[in-house]
Structure formats: structure tokens, C-alpha cells
Amino acid sequence: MPTSSTTSAAWRRAEARLRAWFATLDRKPAAFQRAAWKAWAEGHNGLIHAPTGTGKTLAAVGGPLIDAALHPARGLQLLWITPLRSLATDTAQHLTTAVDAMELPWRVLRRTGDSSSAERARLRRGDCELLVTTPESLALLLSYPDVAERFRHLRGVVVDEWHELIGNKRGTLLQLGLSRLRGLKPELRVWGLSATLGNLDEAMQTLAGDGVLIGGSGNKKIQIQTALPDAGERFPWAGHLGLKQLARVLRAVLDVRSALVFANTRSQAELWHEALSAVWPEAPETLAVHHGSIDPKLRFAVEEGLRQGTLRCVVATSSLDLGVDFSSVDRVIQIGSPKGVARLLQRAGRSGHSPGLPSKILCVPTHLLELAEIAAARRALAAHHLEPRHPLRGCLDVLAQHLLTRALGGGFQADQAYAEVRSTRAYAQLPRAQFDAVLAYLQNGGTALVGYPEYHKLQCDLDGHFHVESKRVARLHRLSIGTITADGSLQVRYMKGARLGAVEESFVSRLRPGDRFLFAGKHLELVRVRDMNAYVRPAPNRQGGVPRWMGGRMPLSNELSTELRRTLADADAPEAEMRALHPLLAIQRAQSRLPEVDEVLIERTHTRDGEHLFVYPFAGRVAHEGLAAVLGYRLAQIAKADYGYAVNDYGLAITARKLPALDAETMRQLLHPWGLRRDIRASINLTELARRQFREVARVAGLVFNGYPGQDKTLRQLQISSGLLFDVLRQHDPEHPLLWQAEREVLDQQLDYPRLRDCLIRIARGKILYVEPPRLTPLSFPLWVERLRGGVHADDWKSRVERMLATLEKAADR
After folding, report:
1. Which of these ranges, 483-487, 678-682, 702-706, has the smallest mean pLDDT?
2. What is the C-alpha to C-alpha distance for residues 373 and 383, in angstroms, rounded to an integer?
3. CA atoms 673, 674, 675, 679: torsion sign
4. What is the mean pLDDT of the chain?
5. Where are the alpha helices (DSSP H) in 82-229?
């Protein structure tokens, strides 16, 4: 391992070649880039944290390239892990340019699910020194018996966009893969790249252990602008599409050469693309839409259009948040609140994507209260309050997948594998009993399934060596690696076979042949559904819905919600957004109260629908859903009634024909954190939620098979098969590790139990404001709309909203 080579003449000469290449680009290596090269040469692990567009890629690859110039060798030298397949091609091109600049004989390959057969054949032959791949493809490579030989020459691993992996199961799978590589190559150097993380020390420890934290250029300027309503302009009190702002967005796009318009959900992106298309004054092919459900070939064509400058505007979701370099983008527009500080920073970085250039973003509020969210995001960004992303702990389904991979990749001894797994942050506290339970599941399926040979996947020799004998088990496992990111979806294809992308099966199941919908920016008519394919043809005009995908809700982050409470309490602040919001907040003050940071406002109001209880914890939509269910259950213990509820990011509404007598002290008791877990179990059908979550857990753990390529099982088939297994295990093997995993995920992910618990603790320590205003207030009106939208009414709900808003505005004017 290099130690003193940093100061050697040979090192300086090799580094000079890299500096000379920088000079041809009219640039000089930044201080953080030189620091990263030096740290690599000294054998350190580490994390490079720098704003988007400042040169993190060259900071990470420079050290390995200089090292390779000093110590030339053939065979796989460097692994580059990227979170998205779509980034692999772009990254491989950038890395190839750097390799060529250093005049190295390195061959750069990519290995993802989209790789060609020729690329895979080259990798099998070892015709590669630098491999760009994904966590799932790395796991697949680790599942072959020649794993030790394949990685014999490996010197280092670089994990790009580490913030996108650390907090999910793909990051957990990667941690396990790296622990295997470290077992093969103890001297392996591991580096991560990130632009938006609030817990840097934990992120580095999770990936690289005791390494070096290198901060990039901190002077990257972020300019946040807001599309403010004009004086006297009637602006929505509630909503999420923001199409009233269409004219402003169109002007902002046409004022520049090229623009990215970010939406928070895929359905919102489709609708905004449709709206812009209706008023687009230029050639239709200069406007495009991009999101994760669109076919990769179509997405790649959009990305190429941005690179080459042939596209004027792309409406996108988080699919374009990450590292692809579009230096031609002049303006970034965010529709609605970004819902998170890091997300705002990441998206702003898509413009000015070069060192020294400022990044600019125009935020377009969809309703008035989002002005406060934008002001709060600017404050949080100025204070560097980015969201932390914590690693998941003890995911037993991912552990099961990895152990089967480990068994296929040469086998293992239990004690050795346990020590290797415990070396990761994700499993550092894993009890041996849980590890052994997962091993037992892989050996025989658990006590309830011991009589079924198909669940006997692992065999153990007399010397305690675990391995896989069945070729069928090996084949099915390798086909299943990567199901962490899978969902129940159908391919959308034209009748002649051209693929447009994928939509969730739950959406297509509500359509009949002849129904029309909008997808990939096109008006489509469903012809038929067959073999997990939805066959469509172009529709002459749009009628029908837009797919709404799982995970489409984007809750307010904890950091942004905390800053939002402070911002609303400082209602007279000088920011332009708060000045524009002042009339609305004045109405809130006059009719009710504006809560301080340590206060929780509760309003009780009567409308023709019944009585409504509005609670405003500002804890995000997901936590509010759990709290609404618990509060409804606790109210039912006081007075039996049918309680309905609605939630948004600001609060929740409980509705009944008649609410019981309430006051501040009663509400304090109803919102107390004591007995929270018990009341969640009583108020929510946790068993049914766990049954549905079990499908995903069982799929990752290999208990159910997702289907062969091109013959995927339907979501209904998977739900039935996993549901039967769930019932069998609950009855005959209630301590099965996958049952425990499913219930824990429901509490932690679907109900955001930790945030809900922290919210109730904050309420218990603060002051409760209990108010009974005579009519809906600016804070309660969006919740009333949310409840109305989810119900069934004889008249058009939009007309009711307009009438109610007119009534409230008239009352406010008085």
C-alpha cells in the first residue's frame, strides 16, 4: 500500500499529467481534489462531501489514476458504484475521458441490468480495469464461485451519490457487499461521494469506517427565487398542482435557452408536461417529460437532448436529481415546495453545474402557505440544516439475501459470516439469535415450512460449511437479486411492441379496454392487458386519469418542518414570501391563533358536514396519518362515534357528526405519548398492513419468487402466495424472523413511528392552544379540502371548494 509515494518525484510527475489535463480545460485542481488524491495515496478511506457541480468525480478518481500510473497492472482495479442504471453510462463516459487523459491502458466497462451481452462477456473474461456498476449488480458478481479470483487485483471502491443509498435497503445490501470485499481484500480502500447530507460523520463511518472526511468548495452560491403572486392577485389557499402559475412558468422557461421543471411526483410531472404542451409556442420535440417509470431508452434520449441542447424544457421528477451533468441547463424551476432542504439543494445544483458558477432555482408555490415553506427552506439552507440520512438497522430480509449470495460465492462458516456481517453499521448490534434464525430459515424455511424441500436452500457440511447444492436455487436467487427496488408493475407497450415504460398494476386494474390515460407525455387508450403488459394505442384526445404511483406522496422533512414552525411564528419577517403571505396570516390571527415554536394549535369548527377537530403538529403527512388514527381511537374511548380523518403536511382533521366535549387539558391527555404503540395496534389493522408489507419482505428474502424475466407474476399472484405464507407462519411459526421484519417496517416506514413518537413528546412538553373559530381558517381550509377530495359527494367537490373559499374570503374582507 502506498505510504510515502505522495512526496516522491514519481508521484509528482504522475500528478502533473493530471494537472496538465485540467489546464486544457482552463481549470486548476481544487484544494479538496488535491486533498482527496493525497489521502488515496496514503491508503485512507473517506468521504468527499461537496456541492453539486464542483468536481467530486475527479476528486475521487484522480488518486486511483495517479496510483495506476505509478503501479500499472491488469485486471479489475477499481469499482465505481452508482445508485442508478441511468447514471452508469454517463459516469462511464466521464471516467473514460479521465483515463484517456492520463494515457492509461485501463478498460472501462459498465455492468448493470441494462448491460449488453457483449459487455457482460468482456467482464467475464476480465477485460476491465474500471467497472461502473450498481449495488445489485455487485451482489450478483459476488454470487459466483470465482469471486475471489474476480476481485484478486481490486484496489478500491468508490460509491457515488452515497446519500441516495445510505438510508434504504439498497444501501444495506451494499454495506454487506463491501464487507465481503473487505474479507477478500483487507487493504481495500473505500470512498464515498455526496452533495447533500446532514450527518456526515455517521455517513462516513457507515461506508468507510475510520476514514478521512474531505469537504469540497463551500462557496457554491445558491440563489433561491420565488414566483410571488402579484399585488391583489387571488391565489389558491389549497392545492398541489399549481397550474394557476402556468403563465409564469412558461415565461420563465422561454426566457432562457434550456430549463428543467421539477415536480414532486410522477403524476404531477405528467400533468405539468401536458399543460405546458397545450401552450408551447415552439416545436413539440423541444419539450419532454422524464421520470423513473418511463422506459430507459426514452429517458436516455431525453438526457441526450439536454446534453446536446436540442431540448428547451424537460419536466422531471427526482429521476434527474442525481449526478448526470447537464451543463447546458440555464434555469431550474421547482413546482411546489421541495419538501426537503437537501432536495432543494440537489435540484438547484442542476443549473450552474460547473465549478465557480452559481446555482439558481425558481420556486413556484402551488398555494399560499407554500410561500412559508420556501422561506423556511431558504433559512434552513443558510444555516446548513440539511436532512440526515440514517442507515437502516438489522434488515433480516436483506441479510437472508446476502447469506444466500455468500453461500453461492464460495460458501461460509457461520461464525466467520456473523463476524463479517457485524462489521457493518447496519448489523453491528445484530443478536446472534436473529442471525441463527435467518440461517435456519435458509436451511429449512423455519419450523412451519420444514416439510417443503423447495425451502431447503442451504446445506451444511459436517465441518459447519454452508453452501448451495441445488442449481435451481442458484438460478432463482440470481434472478431475484435486485428485487429490493421492484414493485408490482405492468409494462406499457404500443400494439406493435414499442415500450413506453411501466405503471403500477393497481392503476391498470381500474381501467377497462377503451379507457384513456396520460403517460410518458402521450395520450393513450388501453387496448388489452396480457402477460404483465398493458397494450395501448394513441388516443386522439385526453380523457381519464394519470397514473399515481406508490411512494408518490412526499412528506415534509423533519428539518424543514422545524424551520417552518419557526418561520410561521415569525410572521412579520422581512422575506418577500412572508410579506406576500402576511394578509393570509393576518386572517389566521384574527379568526384563531398562530402557534409559536413551542405551541400546538388545535381548532374545533362546525360546517354542514359535521364537526371538525384540526390539530397542527407540523410533523409531516406520514406521521400525521398514524396520529389521526390514534387520536380517532382515543376519542372513541370517550364517545362512541364514526370518526373520519384527513391529513396533510401541516396537520390532521378528525370529523364526526358530533364531537365530545373538549378543552386544552383533555387534548393534552388525548395527545400524550404514553401507550402510543399499544394504541397504534388497536387503531390500525396492523396485521393486515404487515400482511401486505410481508410481500415485499418475502420477495427480498427469497421466500416468494418474483417470476422469470418476461413472465413476472402479477401483484395479485404475489399477494396471494405471500399472504398464504404469512397466515401459515403467524399460526405455526410466530417467531419467524420475516414476520418480525414486516411488522417493524410497517411501524417505522409506513407510519413513521419514531417521528410520531417524537412529535407527541414535543406536544407533551409544550403549550396547547385550543380555539373554537366560527368558520374554517387558512390553516384548516386545506385539510377540509383534503377530506372533501377523498369523499364521495353528490355535487362536484371542486365547486364546493370554490364556494367555501369565496365565503371565507368575503368573511375575511369584513
Report:
1. 483-487
2. 15
3. negative
4. 87
5. 85-101, 117-125, 135-141, 147-150, 169-184, 200-208
- Report d(CA 168, CA 341) in Å as an integer: 19
Q: Which residues contact 443 (CB under 8 A, 6 or more apart)?
A: 456, 457, 458, 459, 460
Residues 6+ apart with CB under 8 A from 264: 317, 335, 336, 337, 338, 339, 554
Q: Which residues contact 748 (CB under 8 A, 6 or more apart)?
A: 754
Query: What is the rounded CA–CA span in Å between residue 592 and residue 470?
Result: 69
Give the model confidence (pLDDT) of 330-382 as tens digits: 899 999 999 999 999 888 888 876 666 778 899 999 999 999 999 999 999 99
Cα 309 from Cα 329, distance rounded (Å): 8
Half-sphere exposure at residue 692, Cβ-oriented, CA atoms within 13 angstroms = 10
What backbone phi and psi angles, to 5 degrees, belong to 80? -120, 110
Crossing angle for the helix pair 414-422 and 169-184, to the nearest 10 degrees? 120
Are 396 and 368 within 8 A, CB to CB?
no
What pLDDT score was predicted for residue 6? Answer: 47
- In degrees, rounded to 5, the angle at the alpha carbon of residue 22 between the alpha carbons of residues 17 and 25 is 135
d(CA 445, CA 453): 9
Cα 305 to Cα 289: distance, rounded to the nearest angstrom:
12
Question: For residue 452, is pLDDT > 90?
Answer: no
Torsion angle (degrees, nearest 10) of CA 221, 222, 225, 226: -160
Give the CA dihedral 359, 365, 368, 374, nearest 10 degrees. -30
The DSSP secondary structure of 330-383, one letter per residue, reads: -EEEEES--SSHHHHHHHHTTSS-STTPPEEEEEE-SSTTHHHHHHHHHHHHHT
Is the separation of the CB atoms in 620 and 649 below 8 Å?
A: yes
Report which secondary-structure segment, H or E, holds 623: helix 621-638
Residues in the chain: 814
Query: Between 551 and 455, where is the model more confident?
Result: 455
CA distance 562 to 116: 47
> Minimal CA–CA distance to 149: which of 475, 408, 409?
409
* Tens digit of each residue's pLDDT (9 = 90 or more) over 166-221: 999 999 999 999 999 999 999 999 999 998 888 999 999 999 998 999 986 555 68
pLDDT category, 1, cuts 50, 70, 90?
very low
By DSSP bridging, strand 489-494 and strand 499-504 are antiparallel
Lowest mean pLDDT among 23-27, 529-533, 715-719: 715-719
User: Are the CB atoms for 401 and 173 separated by under 8 Å?
Assistant: yes
User: How far is 59 from 66, CA to CA, in rounded Å?
Assistant: 12
CB contact at 8 A, 677 and 630: no
Q: How far is CA 600 from the centre of its chain?
A: 29
Q: Is the pLDDT of residue 794 over 50?
A: no
Contact 341, 557 (CB under 8 A): yes
Return the SS3 of 516. Answer: strand
Strand partners, 413: 465
From CA 734, how far away is CA 729, in angstroms rounded? 6
354 half-sphere exposure, CB direction, 13 A CA radius? 10
> What whole-number distance in Å separates Cα of residue 97 and Cα of residue 83?
21
270-312: pLDDT as tens digits: 999 999 999 999 999 999 999 888 887 888 888 888 888 899 9
The reported pLDDT for the residue numbered 447 is: 86
Q: Please say if the pLDDT value at position 460 is more than 70.
A: yes
Strand pairing category for 287-290 and 222-226: unpaired
Confidence of residue 564 (pLDDT cuts 50, 70, 90): very high
Strand arrangement, sheet containing 459-460 = 412-413, 465-467, 459-460
